[in-house]
Amino acid sequence: MIVRDKPTKLELAFAIRGSIVPAIAPRIGLLMLFSAVMVVLHDTLPSFPEIDAIGFTVFGIALSLFLGFRNNAAYDRWWEARKLLGGLLADLRSFAREVQMFVSDRASQEKMIRLSLAFIHLHRANLRQLPNDPQAKSLGGKLADAPHPPNAALDAIAEEAAWAYRAAQIDGFGAKALQERLGSLTQQQTACERIATTPLPYVYSLLIYRTTYLYCLLFPLALVGPAGWMTPLFVGIVAYVFLGLAEVTEDLSHPFGTTPNALPLDAICRLVEISLAPHLGEKAPQPLAAKDYYLS
C-alpha cells in the first residue's frame, strides 16, 4: 500500500510509484501511434472516413458510467478486506488477553499465543499464495505442510484449549469464551478467503477492455478533421483515463496481492507480533516502515 500524506502538486504530477502509468504506458503509446497513422491516412486519402463526435460523446458517457460501477465494486472488495484484517488484529489481541486470564498453565498459555501468531502468518501466506513463505514456515512448523495451514493452526489452538479444559487448567466459562473467539477468527479468515478466491466476474473485464479499446481505436475518426496532428495527444489523454480506470479496478479487486495498491499484510502481521510480544515476555519488534512510500 502506498503511504504518502499531502503530496505536493509537483509530486502529484510526476509521481510514478503507486501510479498506474507504468502498466498502461505501452498501450497508450500504441494507441497514439495508431492515431498518428490515421492522421497520415486522412491527409493522404481524399475518401478517408470521418465520424461525427456526438456519437462518441454518448459512447464515452456510457463507458464512464460502467467503469465507475466496476470501480465501486472493486473498492468495496478492497475496503471489506481491510476491515476483516482489522477485525483479525482486534480478535488476536483479545485472544491473548483471554488466554492469560482464563488459562492457569503458563506453558499452555504460551503455546496457544504462539499458535495464534503462526495462524496470522500462515493466513497471510495463504491469501498471497506463498506456499514457501519462510516466516510462515518458521512459525508454523509442521502446520505449514497441512492441506490448509491457517485452519490447521486454529485446530491446534482448539486442541490445546480442550486439553487445558480436561486438565482443569481452564473452567467452562473460559473455555466457552476462547471457543467464541476462535469462531470469530474463523469467520473473518473465511471471509478473507472468499474475497481472495472469488474475483470480479470475468465478463466485466472482457467487456470493459473490449469497449475501451474499441472507443480509443475509433476516436481518431472523429478528431482527424478538426484536431489534425493534435489527435494523438487527445487520444492519449482519453486512453489514459479509460485504461487507467480499468487497470486501477483490476488492482483494487485483488486486495491481498503484492501490488503497490494492495493491502499491507506484512505490516499488519507485524502489528500482531508487537501486540502479542508482551504476553510472551518478549521484546516487541519495530513496526514496519514504508520504503519509497510503499508499505508491504
Task: Describe the SSE topology.
Blueprint: H1 9-14, H2 21-44, H3 53-102, H4 106-127, H5 134-140, H6 149-166, H7 172-197, H8 202-218, H9 220-227, H10 231-252, H11 265-276
Keywords:
296 residues; mainly alpha; 11 helices; elongated
Helix/strand structural class: mainly alpha
Helix count equals 11
State Rg: 26 Å
Give the ordered list of helices and strands. HHHHHHHHHHH
Query: How would a textbook summarize the main sheet?
Result: none
Overall pLDDT score: 88
How much strand content do the residues show?
Answer: under 5%
**Low confidence ranges:** none
Terminal-residue CA separation: 6 Å
Task: Label the overall shape.
Answer: elongated
Helical fraction equals over 70%
Number of strands: 0
In short:
The protein has helices at 9-14, 21-44, 53-102, 106-127, 134-140, 149-166, 172-197, 202-218, 220-227, 231-252, 265-276.
Descriptive overview:
With 296 residues, the protein is mainly alpha-helical. Helix content is 72%, strand content 0%. The chain has helices spanning 9-14, 21-44, 53-102, 106-127, 134-140, 149-166, 172-197, 202-218, 220-227, 231-252, 265-276.
